[in-house]
Amino acid sequence: MSKKKNNKGLVPKLRFPEFRNSGEWKLVPLTNALLSITNGLSIEQINNSAGYKVTRIETISNHFINLDKVGFIITNQNLSQYKLNIGDILFSNINSLEHIGKCAFVDKDYDLYHGMNLLRLVTNEKDNIAKYIYYLLKTSIVNRSIKSRSNKAVNQASINQTELGRTSILLPTKQEQQKIADCLTSLDNLITAETQKLDALKSHKKGLMQNLFPADGETVPKLRFPEFRDSGEWEINKLGDVTKSVSKKNSEGLKLPIYSINNVVGFMPQNEQFEGIDSNDRGYDISLYKIIDKHTFAYNPARINVGSIGYSGELHDIIISSLYVCFKTKNEINDKFLQIFLKTSIFMKSVNNKVEGGIRSYLFYENFSNIQILIPPTIKEQQKIVDCLTSLDDMISSQSHRIETLKAHKKGLMQQLFPSVDEVDE
After folding, report:
1. What is the C-alpha to C-alpha distance for residues 387 and 399, in angstroms, rounded to an integer?
2. Which superfamily, per CATH, for 26-171?
């Protein structure tokens, strides 16, 4: 067990006023705060929704109970001792090292049973608060300690019940534990509420995308702005009719930022996509690469991420692989409208239908440029759709930023509400 180096390690930086004179926290092994640490059912699970719901590793992969990722078992065995109760903590003890120590708190009756490859921790609630123990396990200090003492193998790590129980933790009084748990739970509830708002905004955008653009086989959208309801059908065009192919080689070998393309974010720095390595590090001849200007589209015609499309917008003076095909819009179409249309499910379905070659997949420009697109008859209607969806994107971005700010605030609180065990020898 750990030994104290100095008293500072046993007092948090941030403490609620009523506990500031309550003295040091107690350094004890985790098992002192628990009634039990147990393994789950070892019965083979089935995938169809029959029998008893049981946990699996994926059930807590996002740090909460996800009923969409449970298994099922059929048995005549009495499972009462495996039924999860409110206050139980599920702990990932067999996983990749990165995910060892993930845990979830059972906050309600899920009619769920304890399955394989997760430990169940039951808190001694006479002297401790279960939610406090849950948050304590999620602190970076305790999680690092658990990882450092895990058994490591190829692509997998594990920690057994005994070793987990020996993990050193710091405990204040039960009353102070409750105060900390209440504070962090309140913040978690706020994050959950804001996340639900974000999900609602994303769902609203998805619905708008389905209704502001004509459905497959139709030429008029279900939802149209009042001033354009008598403007007639949308025009059917081939992508190549409203765009033009462009190409500007980096013939002087300029060392400009190197970008790649994927369908999630479009253009992205190559070193971000390939774990800090770009073509300069690989020794590639960047004089063969293409220089990208503002308001340029590019798509990947082959191999990984085939069919992925990016739009540079205001981004310029970057280079991309010569493999990518670049094009710009003509006057008939608003480039931001085209950027949105290229992300519609109808267009992506057409792209997927044009991809050939199986494992070595490819999409020739001739086939790509022949994909049909639908365009409102006036630039004004195109711009109206762009303005509507851009405004919604701004709201989504703002809401995402709010959630990230709350998460950062929580992380800072977690660092200050719990004493640092760096002051303690392992």
Report:
1. 18
2. DNA methylase specificity domains (3.90.220.20)
